Amino acid sequence: MDVNCGSYLLKHAKVAVEQKKLSESDIDKALHNLFSVRMRLGLFNGHPEGQLFGNIGPDQVCSQEHQILALEAARNGIVLLKNSARLLPLSKSKTKSLAVIGPNANSGQMLLGNYAGPPCRFVTPLQALQSYIKQTVYHPACDTVQCSSASVDRAVDVAKGADHVVLMMGLDQTQEREELDRTDLLLPGKQQELIIAVAKAAKNPVVLVLFSGGPIDISFAKNDKNIGSILWAGYPGEGGAIALAEIMFGDHNPGGRLPVTWYPQEFVKVPMTDMGMRPEASSGYPGRTYRFYKGRSVFEFGHGISYSKYSYELTAVSQNTLYLNQSSTMHIINDFDSVRSTLISELGTEFCEQNKCRARIGVKNHGEMAGKHPVLLFARQEKHGNGRPRKQLIGFQSVVLGAGERAEIEFEVSPCEHLSRANEDGLMVMEEGRHFLVVEGDEYPISVVI
């Protein structure tokens, strides 16, 4: 109700009220939300141009502070998916020539993705790389991202003449946007053919940069020894090209993590109307999301590597046993796989608040570069199956560490939220047995006793 996308409310809201499918109180609540924001903006205090926000212009929007923020957001969001033999970062002094190939190399508009205002300035990926290596040769190889035809032979010749090759590939808004959904997870047209041919001809393993809003099945590139590094940039905004160049030449240590699972092409066989989360062995349904998906992944949720190696240690958890049998009125449920559980709703708010605990994690940067590193804390159960998630994210925090530096961070763990799951009736329950807090390869057990 608060946001009318298109003309849906105009056409259908009155009839919905008449049929009692929509209450007037819901409309009142939406109007309250909308008009309270307008009041806060001062839109009822006279002519808008005379109010506090009435004359916001390019000077405010494109302030130095905002442009720095855009660049920092791009730096933090770019994900290094592969870096065989530590190909990246490239050496500024030893790289004498660079070939930049691909339909996304010389486009600034592509960086913005969907739902973006005009940028303060355009710097294309090609321009950003040229600022590092003057002897940079560019060839688009495809007229558009669709790449229905590709100048493979010419691209191969360009690649052969350079010390290093960067391929700028992926998608743009001609392939995915509002009201234009993809029907497969592959690169468009002849992009894959082009990438393989150029990588095979290049003097050294190539760098593949992908622009997209969602996953792409690049299994071929993941397993190709001629493709040394893969970066996923998403649609990184106006600062994206500079951030990419900084990462490629070692002026920024990448630390981004994938926000979604990258499924393989065969996942498109799953009907988009099937919203079931859990896998179903009898039908071959693989499940959805990192919590339940049991099929092959191109890259998993949370994947992302860095130029530094980090180690983790769960140094302390404020409790390791949780007793649920403290109430005589508590209803105990016996599941068909002989695991007892209790409803979260019966534990009560007071119990849930009192049993929150703290988990302390030590993180060390073993690399030679400082880095901003996201730490992801998961929970999982010892017992699998029967609709239980494989794991679920408790939270994440980023820590900035210098070379060789160590720090400790803390997470708040709420057992009622983080150690529970939905049962077959859709009710949140906590099950007896061992649960684990997991950060990378380190685990800490918490026993739930009923």
Automatic annotation (TrEMBL):
Residues 373-443 form the Fibronectin type III-like domain. GO terms for molecular function: alpha-L-arabinofuranosidase activity; xylan 1,4-beta-xylosidase activity. GO terms for cellular component: plant-type cell wall. GO terms for biological process: arabinan catabolic process; xylan catabolic process. Signal peptide: none annotated. SUPFAM superfamilies: (Trans)glycosidases (SSF51445), Beta-D-glucan exohydrolase, C-terminal domain (SSF52279). Keywords: Glycosidase, Hydrolase. InterPro entries: BXL, Fn3-like, GH, Glyco_hydro_3_C, Glyco_hydro_3_C_sf, Ig-like_fold. It comes from the Eukaryota. PANTHER family: BETA-D-XYLOSIDASE 5-RELATED (PTHR42721:SF3), SUGAR HYDROLASE-RELATED (PTHR42721). Belongs to the glycosyl hydrolase 3 family. This is Fibronectin type III-like domain-containing protein. It comes from Populus davidiana.
